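FORM 12-B: Structure-to-Sequence Request
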């Protein structure tokens, strides 16, 4: 019965040189299945930053029951040993989770000012975004954390924005290698155009 069968539409979306530096490309291909639930499936797809090619898993999909119910299913981006898994969606409000596995922190430097401190390390943890309560937050463990090529140790970090997304509150600690003491840190990072950072460090008797 053709009325009960879903209809498939193939698509291809290509983006080239879409940022100011003309070095960001993306390609999305796949099928859109129309039925009781509309499903966007993905074929060979990627997002390309300078030095980082992120490929979308072939079993990734977005399921739309209606415009108020959208879910990400098996939505995974990978780049070599790095993995970002996206889950959540929209059900009355937007809530997304990003699970990070072995993500190179140097990726963040691309989005920062050229004169900002250079960060590196391998990130594992979860980041979330919500359109209502506690909008942005996360918990991260960063191995071999370094700043400006100075190796500091393992960084454990909690982050949580205020309700209006004006700033991000940070607290955590760095455990230097082969030392029992830790360096505790807490402070805030503004999320508006001012880009201010206030950070306090407690060295707990570090030499």
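FORM 12-B RESPONSE
SEQUENCE OUT:
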């Amino acid at each position: 019965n053709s009325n009960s069968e879903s209809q498939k539409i193939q698509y291809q979306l290509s983006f080239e040189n879409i940022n100011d530096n003309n070095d960001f490309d993306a390609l999305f291909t796949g099928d859109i299945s129309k039925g009781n639930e509309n499903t966007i499936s993905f074929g060979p797809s990627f997002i390309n930053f300078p030095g980082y090619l992120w490929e979308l898993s072939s079993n990734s999909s977005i399921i739309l029951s209606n415009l108020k119910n959208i879910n990400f299913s098996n939505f995974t981006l990978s780049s070599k040993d790095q993995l970002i898994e996206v889950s959540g969606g929209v059900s009355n409000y937007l809530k997304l989770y990003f699970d990070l596995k072995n993500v190179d922190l140097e990726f963040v430097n691309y989005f920062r000012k050229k004169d900002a401190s250079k960060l590196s390390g391998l990130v594992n943890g979860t980041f979330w975004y919500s359109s209502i309560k506690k909008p942005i937050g996360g918990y991260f463990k960063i191995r071999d954390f370094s700043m400006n090529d100075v190796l500091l140790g393992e960084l454990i970090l909690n982050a949580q924005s205020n309700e209006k997304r004006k700033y991000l509150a940070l607290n955590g600690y760095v455990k230097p290698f082969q030392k029992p003491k830790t360096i505790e840190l807490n402070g805030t990072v503004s999320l508006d155009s001012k880009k201010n950072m206030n950070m306090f460090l407690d060295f707990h008797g570090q030499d």
